Amino acid sequence: MTEGDRALDVLRQSEPDLVILDVMLPVMNGFEICKAIRQETQIPIIMLTARGEVADRIVGLELGADDYLPKPFEPRELVGRMEAVWRRSQGATSHSRWVFGDLMIDPHAQTVMLKDKELELSTAEYRVLELLARSPGKTFERQAIIDCLHGTDWATVLRSVDVLISRLRTRLLDDPKEPRYIRTVWGRGYRFIGKRGS
Question: What's this model's pTM, rounded to 2 decimal places?
Fold first, then answer.
């Protein structure tokens, strides 16, 4: 299927487990389709493209893609990426909820509530938040966050972590100058500072 608008119709009807999305499509490009998908569902998305520039990867990440595979690639690599993304999407098994004052994270449902209102987070945004909140007080370097979320192919896109953190802070109403949840550890990375049960 090569037309983005048709792909969206099929997605709504069939509810697949994972989407492989080419950036270069007629009518709607892959970035536009990714954005449209994220407005409706948190289904895992792998983007394929011949454009391997760092800026394009950041755009894909900002829009909610879970992984990014530049062309040409080996079919086995795509299969491996699909398996990794699928495992991550199914990785939350705990039924307990994490409460940090007004913030509640449900790893099983992969939902986040702030002041009793559910937040609409992209998959990447949610995974960064879950990673940090799972280990309060631990400092995660940017490279460690990238490796955990996307594998070593994303290693050169350290700036994308800052993009995600900035977006998360906006959604969490978290002032970086007086943070309640995410603190910048200058020269190193980020740390979750929320207090459980507070």
Answer: 0.53
Domain check: are 111 and 26 in the same one?
A: no
Look up the domain containing 98 and give its range: 93-198
Render the chain in DSSP notation, one character per residue: ---HHHHHHHHHHH--S-EEEES--SSS-HHHHHHHHHTT----EEEEES---HHHHHHHHHTT-SEEEESS--HHHHHHHHHHHHHHHT-------EEETTEEEETTTTEEEETTEE----HHHHHHHHHHHHSTT-EEEHHHHHHHHH-GGGTT-THHHHHHHHHHHHHHT--TTS-SSEEEETTTEEEE-PPTT-
Beta-ladder partners of 20: 46
Q: For residue range 113-138, what is the model confidence (pLDDT) as tens digits? A: 999 899 988 877 888 898 899 888 88
